[in-house]
């Protein structure tokens, strides 16, 4: 495997504050797409592919070959465009192996029925802690970083790590842990795994919400910056203090605007629920559940 570092291109969807990435091998055409977005107008119940088309345009203009379409976790704030990208660009899908726990939890929440497989088969590859895979000549390795959800992963590719929702910019802090299967203590320990990477490691975030006083959206920080400046988990913050802070903070947060459609679709690897007998696809709203 090459010791070179990846080339990273970010794409930002401001309505959901989401960053997606194309991660390129500098020595070949190979690339991976991480945390794609399917645009969704909730009020109209209508999807759109503007964000995914921007990625497709970039890949095709640069004559890249997509080997992977990866998710850091089952997102609760945006829909995945993985099936649309697969259709147009190919690539294997991948997510953490503990997706099966998320599918079990939310399969019950949405009463998905026996036809909804809860063994992760909707994805091509289920990753475990320490697994590795190739992006062309680059080696990517997997850190299991649960806490926000049971299935959260960090993908480490050379000097770059894609941390999903585990960390935000240092001035904004860390992920919430109050979704089903989340746990603040587990998140603290996962963050320590990320912060044990070399200080110069580039950390690419799935979201940025612009802390008060900051004008620009930012997708990239470093391990060193997080260790020194993260407002929730900088060096010197112990596990007990973090857990108290995180639980108190989470108790004040409302549910993400798109959690109900997002989870129903993302637990299926971006595929819609099956159409009903009239040929129409529907999403469910479980009343008074959250």
Write a compact overview of the structure shown.
The protein is of the alpha/beta class and 290 residues long. It is 24% helix and 22% strand.
Neighbour order of strands in the largest sheet: 1-2-3-6-7-8
Largest sheet: 6 strands, mixed
**Chain-averaged pLDDT:** 96
CATH hierarchy class name: Alpha Beta
Strand content: 15-25%
Low-confidence stretches: none
- The H-and-E topology, N to C, reads as EEEEEHEHEHEEEEEHEEHHH
Q: What value does the Rg take, in angstroms? A: 18 Å
Domains, number:
1
Walk me through what this model shows.
The protein has seven helices and 14 strands. The strands form three sheets. It has a six-stranded mixed sheet with strand order 1-2-3-6-7-8, with helices on one face. Helix content is 24%, strand content 22%. The longest helix has 12 residues, at 50-61. The chain has helices spanning 50-61, 82-89, 99-109, 184-195, 223-229, 239-250, 259-266, and strands spanning 7-13, 18-24, 30-34, 39-41, 46-48, 65-70, 92-96, 125-127, 132-135, 138-144, 153-157, 160-162, 202-204, 220-222. The radius of gyration is 18 Å and the shape is globular. A hairpin with a 2-residue loop joins strand 11 and strand 12 (160-162). It has 290 residues and is α/β, with parallel strands linked by helices. It starts with 6 loop residues before the first strand and ends in a 24-residue tail after the last helix. The protein has one domain (7-266): Ribonuclease Z/Hydroxyacylglutathione hydrolase-like (Metallo-beta-lactamase, Chain A, 4-Layer Sandwich).
